[in-house]
Design a protein that fits this description.
With about 475 residues, this protein is an alpha/beta fold. It contains eleven helices and 25 strands. Helix 5 links the parallel strand 10 and strand 11. The longest helix has 15 residues.
């Protein structure tokens, strides 16, 4: 069987590796427009902030490694056309212009995403940079050496992390976002206010509700950034981090896509064409909190989907478990983590959403040291099912987000979480773990509101012991 993989960052690299390790006799051809594969774009901020010294260390594989496994790897080749009816494709060698034809038995589309750029006049200004791939990261790093005032447009994960990196390297940082808080897709206002204050305490000029409309250069050579509100800000360079859009034009009108242009797949990562699979930022995910498809470009989704595509092209045997979009960041020494829905998105999803907020220490006061922890827990009043959570602390609490991710995936309720077995040691937590405590707070809230009707899932379905 001949398998062609188009695109080779997270999902494509993992898919190729999975295929060749399990089925080494498979003919695998990889097409990649860049001269590298497997770049960890989510780690760009570590390089910009000096915590990773070599950008080249952000690659976790190489074309040579895939060739050693048996793949034909064609880097610097841009796929121009895919014909699903004849199962053929056309590609051009970027270095010499040679056009070649190829065919496939199974096709895996891991073409990823590109930087989303809202309508902004002057986006092609030389002092306006995008942040997504290896070459762009190198350009940003070099540009910042001789420029002190950095404007970052967009306050999602990438924008917020880049703002932190430059604040830590003695740059003057301006962070602009069109929303009324940072990290809008991941956290609610309670944690966002804490994160925003952290940025401001470290001299980041955070400007909310500022939609950028235009970039221009003035007579002094400064970059002027105009916003919809009529304000103008100045900087030496601007870095645009306004999200991502799927790169799927090769299959337009040939397979089913969502409104974003992301490829729709079934539980086996198979598109509407049975011989084409997809993984990573080019396709949707099954978002467990709502039970619907969603476009959620995260590396964690990409690598899992890549493995599944590599398995299921030989027979649909391994279904996708879906995602809770669990994610985390370190911001000026604080851990911020989230999983599932925020209150705003839960309300949009039609849930009868309620929330509780736990403010406590992560371990007993009598210990030599402890730190505050804030947890926002979202649940559905009708089913009592946990819908989402966000956590923030100086203490490393990100693994608790993983626990809550499993809770959401398994459709567990606040009643399950309130008393589920968790370890106790004063070194690590209180007699009830803080996840127990925030769920108990939710149970109490429901009882006080007159909804005292506990519901258990797997915990309540076991046969009683003899």
């Amino acid at each position: 069987m001949k398998v062609v993989i188009v695109g080779c960052t997270h999902a494509g690299t993992i898919a190729a590796t999975q295929i060749l390790k399990a089925h080494p006799d498979t003919e695998v051809t990889v097409y990649e427009r860049n001269d590298n594969i497997s770049f960890l774009s989510c780690g760009i901020y570590l390089y910009l902030g000096g915590r990773v010294k070599r950008l080249e260390d952000m690659f976790y594989s190489s074309p040579e490694a895939l060739r050693e496994l048996g793949a034909t790897v064609r880097t610097h080749h841009n796929v121009l056309k895919v014909d699903t009816k004849t199962k053929t494709l056309q590609a051009v060698n970027i270095e010499n212009g040679e056009v070649l034809q190829d065919h496939y038995d199974k096709l895996i589309m891991t073409t990823g995403s590109t930087a989303a750029v809202p309508p902004m006049a002057g986006i092609d200004e030389s002092k306006v940079l995008l942040c997504k791939n290896y070459q762009q990261a190198k350009e940003i790093y070099e540009s910042a050496k001789d420029n002190h005032r950095i404007a970052v447009v967009g306050a999602g994960y990438s924008g917020t992390e880049i703002a932190e990196s430059y604040a830590l390297t003695d740059h003057e940082v301006l962070l602009l976002t069109s929303g009324n808080q940072i990290l809008h897709h991941y956290i609610g206002p309670e944690i966002a206010q804490l994160a925003g204050k952290l940025l401001q305490d470290h001299h980041v000029d955070l400007q909310l509700n500022q939609r950028v409309t235009e970039f221009t250069s003035n007579d002094q050579g400064d970059l002027e950034i105009k916003t919809q509100s009529g304000q103008t800000f100045s900087a030496d360079i601007a870095i645009v981090c306004t999200g991502f859009v799927p790169s799927t034009s090769l299959l337009r009108r040939q397979v089913k896509m969502d409104k974003h242009g992301a490829l729709l797949t079934n539980e086996f990562m198979q598109t509407s064409d049975p011989d084409i699979y997809a993984a990573g930022d080019s396709c949707t995910v099954h978002f467990n909190p709502t039970g619907r498809s969603a476009y959620t470009p995260l590396a964690t989704n990409a690598i899992r989907q890549g493995v599944l595509a590599g398995v299921n092209i030989f027979g649909n045997t391994m279904p996708y478990l879906g995602t809770q979009a669990t994610s985390a960041m370190d911001l000026f020494g604080y851990s911020i983590a989230s999983t599932g829905l925020t209150r705003e998105y839960a309300e949009w999803g039609g849930f009868n959403v309620q929330q509780v907020v736990l403010d406590d220490n992560w371990r007993p006061d009598y210990m030599p040291t402890t730190d505050k922890i804030k947890i926002v827990l979202l649940y559905d009043r009708d089913s009592r099912r946990v819908l989402g959570a966000q956590l923030c602390s100086k203490h490393e609490i990100t693994q608790s987000a993983n626990t809550l991710s499993v809770v959401i995936q398994n459709n567990n309720t606040i009643d399950d979480l309130a008393y589920v077995d968790m370890l106790f040691s004063p070194n690590f937590d209180s007699p009830f773990n803080y996840l127990n405590l925030v769920a108990q707070q939710a149970v109490d809230q429901e009882r006080e509101a007159g909804f005292d009707r506990p519901r258990f899932t797997a915990l309540g379905n076991r046969e009683p012991r003899p």
